[in-house]
Specification:
This protein has 199 residues and is mostly helical. 74% of the residues lie in helices and 0% in strands. It is built from 9 helices and no strands. It has helices spanning 5-26, 34-41, 45-52, 55-80, 84-97, 102-116, 125-141, 150-169, 174-190. Helix 4 (55-80) packs antiparallel against helix 5 (84-97), helix 7 packs across helix 8 and helix 8 runs antiparallel to helix 9 (174-190). The termini are far apart.
Amino acid sequence: MRKPRQEMIAETRGKLIAAGRRAFGTIGYAEASMDDFTGEAGLTRGALYHHFGDKRGLLQAVIIEIDAEMTERLNEVSAAAPTRWQGFVDECSAYIEMALEPEIQRIMFRDGPAVLGDISQWQNTPGCIAALSRSLDRLKADGEIIDIDTETAARLINGASSHMALWIANAENPEVVSKRAVAGFKAMLGSLRRQQRGV
């Protein structure tokens, strides 16, 4: 029985994204060829062009998928914390630490910026800033943080966390840099708390 058209489209996209993700995560964007993706997925170049335009478009789709998975994991980290403030700190720190994971490091923080440009201009950034703003609004309502414009604070936190992740991903010793980055980032977040109670 023939599958519905929408199901076939979703299946084809899924196969190409999975193949692209494996190639980008192992050999990297520059070395991966369109024949690698289509051959592994059992599809033609035409299918790749139709769904993503080119290799760059496929990378963008892979990044969107990984970003959604990262968000899900970060939500779990936040939910597991004993307080809303601790959840916020843990979530932000976990994002930075994800730059140690080989696939995320290579695709999100090395090849992604090299191919797609400034990470602050990616299409998922406004959503990240909006989510951070909502979290800060709640913390402000709880009396946890100082009276600060939450969108401004969200943009500062987003920029700093992205920069820390890029620093780690491109460092000669990512593990050492990660410890420094997280410690410094927590100190920065601590300055937002009322009465400087620390993190």
